[in-house]
């Protein structure tokens, strides 16, 4: 790396860490170190940092809450950016619109909407990630996706240039979007509909209960490992192919929901990845269907 790490350390202090272990930033609790881990204090610092490193061609990953990401054991030979607390926060913009920082947790956004009588954001109470991650992934559940309530986003590219993009100019699809990899989402404007707090509360509780009944909680996982196929749900394909009891080391499949893969103790990211490949291979053999990954795998394989 031709970067002058001393200069960066001096300029960005505690916000930049070299060889930071990433396992604590992922729900799987797995992953090796990042060459550079940067947690910007605020937008000004982020822009300044991006300008300083722009000629170094660093492989760059953005991490939200890490609830959809498996980080490999060898870590990331490059840069990982995780937005800090200054990138969270929620503000009411008129009756039914809110502005949200990208690092804000979906659950808090749902609570804020409820407390302000804004409906249609109840589903966010079931998703454990951040708003930035939800937008990138077009996250959703029970018939609602974030793209349904998104008006616009503010992003910054890796050269440090900021722009606003209307939701109508983003192509959203099932668990994804065409947002370029080098865009860092800074904030978003969401729009719901006015309702009563009681009705919103009831809808939110129903969804949370449905989720509790069908999916495991308090486990080290990335949520749904594979996307649902348009013919059949991924968990059905896994079960019907006889893979639901597969394991590799401590990488196991949840008994409650067989599309949830778990680090049940001392698994390595390699074990989880091997388990993913094993299931994918078997489902292909048994059904002819290629299961497509929903979780993101980042980092270096060798
Ligand atoms: C128990 C459990 C239940 C889950 N249930 C659901 C569910 O019901 N529905 C659902 O859709 N998902 C679900 N998920 C998956 C996950 O919570 C969502 O995909 C979530 O939106 C990811 O957000 P995150 O902040 O954790 O993203 P991360 O895992 O940190 O990142 C995911 C992707 O988003 C990108 N990203 C994150 N922040 C930014 C940013 N600021 N700018 C640009 N890109 C960014 C990352 O680069 C990466 O590509 C579940 C996961 C778990 C662990």
Describe the structure.
- The chain has 302 residues and is α+β, with helices and mostly antiparallel strands.
- Helix content is 26%, strand content 26%.
- The protein has helices at residues 5-12, 43-53, 106-115, 131-137, 197-214, 234-240, 269-287; strands spanning 16-21, 33-38, 60-63, 69-71, 76-82, 90-92, 97-101, 118-119, 140-141, 144-145, 150-156, 162-166, 172-173, 176-177, 184-191, 193-194, 221-224, 251-253, 260-263, 296-298.
- The strands form 7 sheets. Strands 6-7-15-11-12 form a 5-stranded antiparallel β-sheet, covered by helices on one side. It has a 4-stranded mixed β-sheet with strand order 1-2-5-3. A 3-stranded antiparallel β-sheet has the order 17-19-18, with helices on one face.
- β18 and β19 form a beta hairpin.
- The radius of gyration is 20 Å and the shape is globular.
- The model has no long low-confidence stretch (mean pLDDT 96).
- Flavin-adenine dinucleotide (FAD) binds at residues 27, 61-69, 83, 102, 126-130, 132-134, 136-137, 139-141, 184-185, 221-223, 296.
């Amino acid at each position: 790396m031709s970067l002058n790490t001393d200069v960066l350390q001096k300029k960005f202090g505690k916000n930049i860490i070299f060889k930071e272990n990433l396992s604590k930033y992922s729900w799987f609790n797995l992953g090796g170190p990042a060459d550079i881990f940067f947690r910007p204090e605020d937008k000004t610092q982020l822009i300044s940092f991006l300008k300083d490193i722009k000629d170094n061609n660093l492989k760059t990953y953005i991490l939200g809450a890490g609830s959809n990401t498996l980080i490999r054991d060898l870590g990331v030979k490059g840069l990982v950016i995780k937005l800090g607390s200054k990138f969270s926060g929620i503000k009411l913009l008129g009756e039914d619109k809110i502005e949200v920082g990208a690092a804000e947790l979906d659950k808090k956004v749902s609570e804020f909407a409820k407390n302000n009588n804004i409906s249609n954001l109840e589903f966010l109470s079931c998703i454990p990630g951040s708003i930035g991650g939800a937008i990138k992934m077009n996250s959703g559940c029970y018939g609602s996706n974030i793209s349904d309530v998104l008006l616009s986003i503010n992003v910054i590219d890796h050269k440090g240039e900021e722009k606003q993009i209307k939701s109508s100019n983003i192509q959203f699809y099932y668990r994804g979007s065409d947002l370029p990899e080098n865009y860092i989402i800074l904030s978003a404007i969401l729009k719901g509909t006015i309702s009563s707090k009681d009705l919103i509360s009831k809808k939110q509780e129903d969804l949370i209960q449905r989720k509790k009944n069908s999916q495991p909680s308090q486990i080290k996982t990335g949520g749904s490992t594979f996307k649902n196929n348009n013919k059949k749900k991924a968990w059905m394909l896994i079960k019907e192919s006889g893979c639901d009891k597969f394991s590799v080391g401590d990488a196991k499949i949840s008994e409650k929901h067989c599309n949830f893969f778990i680090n049940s103790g001392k698994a390595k990211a390699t074990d989880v990845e091997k388990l993913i490949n094993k299931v994918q291979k078997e489902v292909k053999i048994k059904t002819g269907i290629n299961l497509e990954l929903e979780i993101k795998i980042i980092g270096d394989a060798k």
